């Protein structure tokens, strides 16, 4: 998986020319260089010619969908993807996030909020790229650059959200993170479609996959009344 080189170059895939031009004008005022594509075909051609720091994708395109482009991007590059769409039902939001999208913004939106979310996503990717070549969690090894999690020679397969949750914990190893901090780190959204039960489900799944006894809190500690903490190397869990 390749990293994108230009730290401020953005690809906007939007078939509404008025919205696209308005976005480009606003983002260029914030120091971004925006390239516009009206459909899936031209977006794929543009992506294969040059790298981008971040992708803004409309969901409904004349010749495909933003979901398809998100899959293409996430399979090839380490860069955030934000969906811009008028479709705000929970099923669509969860589908987008589960396939690796970094944020989901519904139209109409406030440009200052969009810019803030874009910068937050770019900061999160900057932290991830600065991570070590590998990190150990007990008998599990995490390779951030390859987005792989291994136990010995066996790969542990995580969903996009489970993996992102793991990266947030790793980036703050030894620190207690509140539930709100974890939600912000995973989705970079205001929590409109996320609740405590959702986080609990993903945490439970992550523990079951990482921990040798299937979720015994040996690696990820629950700090009652506060949140969660990934134990330091060498720390013994209960």
Automatic annotation (TrEMBL):
It comes from the Bacteria. The modification 4-aspartylphosphate is found at residue 58. GO terms for biological process: regulation of DNA-templated transcription. PROSITE patterns: OMPR_PHOB, RESPONSE_REGULATORY. Residues 9-122 form the Response regulatory domain. Keywords: DNA-binding, Phosphoprotein, Transcription, Transcription regulation. GO terms for cellular component: cytosol; protein-DNA complex. One of its GO terms (molecular function) is phosphorelay response regulator activity. Pfam families: Response_reg (PF00072), Trans_reg_C (PF00486). Residues 132-232 form the OmpR/PhoB-type domain. Residues 132-232 bind DNA. May play the central regulatory role in sporulation. It may be an element of the effector pathway responsible for the activation of sporulation genes in response to nutritional stress. Spo0A may act in concert with spo0H (a sigma factor) to control the expression of some genes that are critical to the sporulation process. This is Stage 0 sporulation protein A homolog. It comes from Murimonas intestini.
């Amino acid at each position: 998986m390749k990293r994108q080189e230009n730290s401020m170059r953005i690809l906007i895939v939007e078939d509404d020319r008025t919205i696209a031009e308005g976005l480009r004008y606003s983002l260029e005022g914030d120091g971004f260089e925006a390239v516009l594509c009206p459909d899936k075909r031209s977006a794929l051609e543009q992506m294969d010619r040059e790298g981008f720091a971040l992708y803004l994708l409309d969901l409904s395109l004349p010749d495909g969908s933003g979901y398809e482009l998100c899959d293409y991007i996430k399979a090839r590059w380490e860069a955030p993807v934000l969906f811009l769409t008028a479709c705000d039902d929970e099923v669509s939001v969860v589908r987008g996030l589960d396939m690796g999208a970094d944020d989901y913004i519904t139209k109409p939106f406030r440009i200052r909020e969009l810019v803030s979310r874009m910068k937050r996503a770019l900061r999160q990717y900057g932290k991830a790229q600065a991570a070590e070549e590998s990190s150990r969690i007990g008998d599990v090894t995490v390779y951030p650059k390859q987005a792989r999690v291994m136990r010995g020679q066996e790969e542990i397969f995580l969903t996009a959200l489970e993996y992102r949750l793991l990266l947030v914990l790793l980036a703050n190893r030894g620190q207690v993170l509140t539930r709100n901090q974890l939600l912000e780190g995973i989705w970079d959204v205001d929590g409109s479609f996320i609740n405590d039960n959702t986080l609990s489900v993903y945490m439970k799944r992550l523990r079951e996959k990482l921990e040798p006894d299937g979720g015994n809190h040996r690696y990820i500690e629950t700090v009652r009344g506060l949140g969660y903490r990934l134990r330091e190397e060498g720390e013994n869990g209960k």
